[in-house]
Amino acid sequence: MFRINRVLGVQTRVLRRSFSTSLKAFQESKIPPKPQGEIQGKPIKNYYIDEDNNVVIKVKPIERSNETTDKKRRRLLYQSRKRGILESDLILSRFADKYLAEMTEEELDEYDRLLDEMDWDIYYWATKKYDITPLPDRWKDSKVLIKLQELSRNSGKEIMRMPDLNKKEMTMGEKK
């Protein structure tokens, strides 16, 4: 999901962090405003304007109907390790290392849907910081999210590090 703010009649992407110098330069660039239904000359579909006057665009995940279970496990392992945010990479890669090989097809599908969410949302849900990002109803009864929250609690007070990649059972999708 992307958020687009309208700034002085011009639509810009906002990635949930402040780009004050870039924003100031953008505001001063005198770019003519775009029509509400277009970005970069292309019409926007599947969007709405939220209560803060942001344009919210829903991006559908890629359908993978012919994907085998082994390929799905490998893809989910990769997506767990390569999120782009270190905190999410650490929690999700440890989760995948511990649980991915033993997950049922239903749990794999649920985890796949969870990974389609925004990185910071997953992080705040995993650490139960609902005041920052409220937990949507669709995730309240999630078995996968409960396991992720238990792992992120780190009750054993372990020093967390990224799991090694050379485990044959994870790279090949075999059960431990």
Automatic annotation (TrEMBL):
<dbReference type="InterPro" id="IPR005631">
    <property type="entry name" value="SDH"/>
</dbReference>
<dbReference type="Pfam" id="PF03937">
    <property type="entry name" value="Sdh5"/>
</dbReference>
<dbReference type="GO" id="GO:0006121">
    <property type="term" value="P:mitochondrial electron transport, succinate to ubiquinone"/>
</dbReference>
<keyword id="KW-0143">Chaperone</keyword>
<protein>
    <recommendedName>
        <fullName>Succinate dehydrogenase assembly factor 2, mitochondrial</fullName>
    </recommendedName>
</protein>
<dbReference type="GO" id="GO:0034553">
    <property type="term" value="P:mitochondrial respiratory chain complex II assembly"/>
</dbReference>
<comment type="function">
    <text>Plays an essential role in the assembly of succinate dehydrogenase (SDH), an enzyme complex (also referred to as respiratory complex II) that is a component of both the tricarboxylic acid (TCA) cycle and the mitochondrial electron transport chain, and which couples the oxidation of succinate to fumarate with the reduction of ubiquinone (coenzyme Q) to ubiquinol. Required for flavinylation (covalent attachment of FAD) of the flavoprotein subunit of the SDH catalytic dimer.</text>
</comment>
<dbReference type="InterPro" id="IPR036714">
    <property type="entry name" value="SDH_sf"/>
</dbReference>
<dbReference type="GO" id="GO:0006099">
    <property type="term" value="P:tricarboxylic acid cycle"/>
</dbReference>
<keyword id="KW-0496">Mitochondrion</keyword>
<dbReference type="GO" id="GO:0005759">
    <property type="term" value="C:mitochondrial matrix"/>
</dbReference>
<dbReference type="InterPro" id="IPR028882">
    <property type="entry name" value="SDHAF2"/>
</dbReference>
<comment type="similarity">
    <text>Belongs to the SDHAF2 family.</text>
</comment>
<comment type="subunit">
    <text>Interacts with the flavoprotein subunit within the SDH catalytic dimer.</text>
</comment>
